[in-house]
From TrEMBL, chain A:
Gene3D superfamilies cross-referenced by the UniProt entry: P-loop containing nucleotide triphosphate hydrolases
Native source organism of the sequence: Maritimibacter fusiformis
Residue ranges occupied by any ABC transporter domain in the UniProt entry: 4-249
Keyword Glycoprotein belongs to the record: no
Residues making up the signal peptide according to the UniProt record: none
Keyword list, A-Z: ATP-binding, Nucleotide-binding, Transport
A molecular-function term among this protein's GO annotations: ATP hydrolysis activity
InterPro entries: AAA+_ATPase (IPR003593), ABC_AA/LPS_Transport (IPR051120), ABC_transporter-like_ATP-bd (IPR003439), BCA_ABC_TP_C (IPR032823), P-loop_NTPase (IPR027417)
PANTHER family in the cross-refs: CONSERVED COMPONENT OF ABC TRANSPORTER FOR NATURAL AMINO ACIDS-RELATED
Protein name: ABC transporter ATP-binding protein
One CC-aspect GO term: plasma membrane
Pfam families: ABC_tran (PF00005), BCA_ABC_TP_C (PF12399)
């Protein structure tokens, strides 16, 4: 039984069958990549996981609990964190404040009216946030305005925000999209470390095969809304069906 | 020194605000009585009370608009609710404001929960329109439909045959706080040519305004305030970080509604009247102007903005042609008439034009409001004196953070 169990999920947008009969099982502590050509339904599937979309059929269970119909903040509180394709951070706030917000969400839950406490006096939150920033080598940037950072740093900050919540499952939507090769390699190293040191299960949606093959334990290939194959990276590499999906019938 | 759980910097900040508020009757009276510039003196009770009251209104509005970015166009509704509540307490009990003011805050909180719950289902322009619609509905209800409760266009006031069950035989026949009569002045010294007025009502509102400011300072520094600022920056990220944004925005809306109710109540505490026009959309728009003019999201901005607009409204509107003749009288006739003709567009009844131009200048050149202007001037001085802060090589500080 995996930590994330997807059974028979289908989603239709008007005349387009975006997903049909998707079955997927993500094993705990693994890195599971979902790849596929453009329009295969990868992002739709991710949006189902985080509560942004409700599928027409099927079920999505996380740790034995259904995530369907829950709001994004409820799904986060269950232990699922998400990294976006373009880093979503609090641009007007400092790096430290960004991470502290995550820490508060983890400690205090979805809503707490702490209007007469002082952020600077919350020693446990400050300490925790500093620790996380140090883990991702960003402590020197703690007072920086988040919007003024490079894209690589924004991604790293977003990752730090997710890590500070110690999630059980981390969903990554093309974490290296638009990055230079050096940044990409740094991100791969960071993700590997997160997976091994912290034992966080990851689901990655990715175009870049270099990233997928250096990280994933298991790969699902999605094409036209259906999983084509699910296997280890070694076997996926030479799989005829995968070649066909990516390069067309004649290949 | 640290006070009341504030950092050293904030304590200093609070002390400066307390000093300025307490010294207002002196600071706003810089010109001697009878001099040509005495028109610009603003140290009379009625105006000073208004500074404090609109300061409270704007501080509260800023908690919603400045922190979360939700622009309400209906906050005047709470102002009206607060005023009506206080006048009703005068009518039913007696002239002591101690019954009316807390009730005004409570009643406007109830209104704010209802209006906020519905309006906050939408954001951006739709939220603004919804709040505007609610405020106009309240205005029309107060103006005509609910006449038994609000006395319609005449406005609510105290009549001789009202019950006033707690009214004592020796009790003052105007609003007071345990005998501290709002209309009275406790000290009116004349020093040299200067005349100062120390008014009971002003000091009553001033102390409440300082408390209101302190509460907003605490909110700005709290985890709650941090979440509100995060809502303004990126609501999507906040949702995916596990925060339910709806109760946060509702709490901010209700708190700012309570501030507005308190301000409305204080208006009735200074002058025992309540009229529907207090709820009109222009009154809602005014607090928006105050907050933006002063600097939305800053602690000091709304207070500066409120002071600025009230000063213009009361001082510039008083400058009529005869005052202008007094100023330009020494000039040759042709020039005098010309100057008066030009000034005529900017003072007296046309003071709105001056305010409009000023507002445009601030929005275009100082998007952070008057506070940003002050910070720029301070930075200029710091550079000249060769201070160690080199602004160009510092990371940009987060804007809209209290300073």
């Amino acid at each position: 039984m995996g930590i994330l169990e997807v059974k028979g999920v289908g989603k239709r947008f008007g005349g387009l069958q975006a997903l049909s009969d998707v079955n997927l099982s993500v094993a705990e502590h693994s890195v599971h990549a979902i790849i596929g050509p453009n329009g295969a339904g990868k992002s739709t599937l991710l949006n189902v996981f985080v509560g942004k979309l409700i599928p027409d059929t099927g079920s999505v269970m996380f740790n034995g609990q259904s995530v369907l119909g829950r709001k994004p903040h409820e799904i986060n509180q269950m232990g699922i964190s998400r990294v976006f394709q373009t880093p979503e951070i609090f641009g007007d706030l400092t790096v430290m404040e960004n991470v502290m917000i995550s820490c508060f969400a983890k400690r205090d839950g979805a809503f707490r009216l702490h209007a007469f406490r002082t952020v600077a006096h919350e020693a446990d939150i400050v300490e925790h946030a500093e620790q996380v920033l140090e883990d991702v080598n960003m402590l020197d940037k703690r007072n920086m305005h988040a919007a003024s950072m490079s894209r690589g740093d924004k991604r790293r900050l977003e990752m730090a925000m997710c890590l500070s919540q110690d999630p059980q499952l981390l969903l990554l939507d093309e974490p290296t999209a638009g990055m230079a090769r050096a940044d990409t390699n740094n991100t791969i190293a960071l993700l590997k470390e997160i997976n091994q040191k912290r034992d966080i299960t990851m689901v990655i949606i990715e175009h870049d095969m270099h990233v997928v093959f250096s990280l994933a334990d298991r790969i699902t290939v999605l094409a036209q809304g259906t999983p084509l194959v699910e296997d280890t990276p070694e076997r996926i590499k030479g799989h005829p069906k995968v070649k066909e999906a990516y390069l067309g019938e004649s290949a | 020194m640290r006070l009341l759980g504030l950092s050293r910097k904030d304590t200093r900040f609070l002390l400066i605000v307390i000093f300025l508020t307490m010294a207002t009757p002196i600071l706003l009276q810089p010109f001697p009585e009878g001099s040509g510039l005495a028109t610009f003196n603003a140290g009379y009770p009625d105006l000073m009370q208004r500074f404090a009251i609109f300061g409270i209104f704007a501080i509260g509005f800023n908690i919603l608009f400045g922190l979360t970015g939700y622009l309400s166009f209906g906050h005047a509704a709470f102002l009206g609710v607060g005023s009506y509540t206080v006048v009703w307490m005068y009518k039913l009990l007696d002239y002591n404001v101690v019954y009316g003011l807390p009730l005004a805050v409570a009643v406007s909180a109830v209104f704010a929960v209802v209006i906020g719950y519905v309006s906050l289902r939408r954001s951006g322009i739709y939220f603004s329109i919804l709040t505007l619609a609610f405020a106009q509905m309240s205005y029309n209800l107060a103006y005509s439909v609910l006449t038994p409760l609000t006395n319609g266009e005449t406005g609510l006031q105290v009549y001789g045959n009202d019950p006033q069950v707690l009214l004592g035989a020796t009790e003052a026949n105007s609003p007071h706080f345990f005998g501290w009569v709002m209309n009275d002045n406790f000290w009116e010294p004349v020093i040299g040519g200067w005349k100062f007025t120390f008014n009971n009502g002003y000091y009553f509102t001033a102390i409440i305004a300082i408390i209101a400011f302190y509460v907003s300072l605490r909110i700005f520094r709290s985890p709650f305030g941090l979440m509100l600022r995060a809502i303004k920056t990126n609501q999507t990220r906040l949702n995916y970080t596990g925060i339910n944004t709806r109760p946060y925005t509702l709490a901010a809306f209700v708190i700012s509604g309570m501030y507005a109710g308190l301000a409305g109540g204080l208006m009735a505490a200074m002058d025992p009247l309540a009229g529907a026009e207090r709820m009109q959309w222009t009154a809602s728009g005014e607090v928006v102007l105050m907050t933006i003019l002063g600097g939305a999201g800053t602690l000091m901005g709304p207070i500066l903005g409120a002071g600025f607009i009230k000063y213009f409204e009361n001082i510039f509107s008083k400058i009529n042609d005869s005052v202008l003749h007094g100023w330009f009288g020494f000039l040759p006739d042709g020039l005098e008439d010309f100057l008066i003709g030009v000034s005529h567009f900017f003072v007296g009844k046309s003071w709105h034009l001056t305010l409009g131009l000023l507002f445009m200048l601030v929005v275009v050149f100082l998007p952070g409001g008057l506070v940003e202007g002050g910070q720029r001037i301070a930075a200029m001085f710091r550079k000249k004196s060769g201070g160690k802060d080199d602004a160009a090589h510092q990371p940009k500080p987060a804007p809209h953070v209290a300073e």
